[in-house]
Design goal:
With 166 residues, the protein is mainly alpha-helical. The protein has two helices and no strands. The chain has one domain.
């Protein structure tokens, strides 16, 4: 039964050794343990703060990236629209230039055809005039083969000249 009821000497030495252990722990162990717990608590709080800050920064970056993507899409559409407008402008300009060039070519062809036509008419007139002179010469030679006919013709021409002068 001595296990259940200890002696007073044993109890005294147990209390002294327990007090020494509590004193040593209170003096050297607990401050270190409490300091480590406080440092751990501060580290955890700082980590939570940094995580919250990182999350807010991430949200800002996400919003900013969405804004940049939207701006890029808008710029992409503007560039496509501008390129399409420029393409249409170039096509219309090319069509206008081609039509102008075609009009110039047609006008030059008309002028050339007209000048060739006039040249052909002049050539025909020259040939007709030449032929007329040749025919008239042959007719006159055949009619004026005799001297009397020549004199009659001269007199008739002189009379016509005198009548036209009067």
């Amino acid at each position: 039964m001595s296990l259940l009821t200890p002696d007073s000497g044993l109890l005294f030495w147990m209390l002294i050794s327990f007090g020494i252990v509590v004193f040593v722990l209170a003096k050297f162990g607990f401050p270190v343990i409490l300091k480590m717990v406080e440092e751990r608590k501060a580290y955890i709080e700082e980590s939570l703060f940094m995580a919250e800050k990182a999350r807010t920064e991430l949200d800002k970056v996400k919003v900013e990236s969405e804004r940049i993507i939207e701006n890029a899409r808008n710029e992409h559409l503007e560039i496509i629209n501008e390129a399409s407008r420029l393409r249409d402008l170039l096509i219309n300009d090319a069509k206008t230039k081609a039509a102008g060039e075609a009009d110039k070519i047609i006008e030059n062809a008309r002028v050339q055809i007209q000048s060739e036509k006039e040249e052909a008419i002049r050539d025909i007139r020259r040939q007709v005039a030449g032929l007329s002179v040749d025919i008239a010469e042959k007719v006159l030679r055949s009619k004026l083969a005799e001297k009397d006919e020549q004199l009659n013709m001269i007199n008739r021409l002189l009379d016509e000249i005198n009548i036209s002068k009067s």
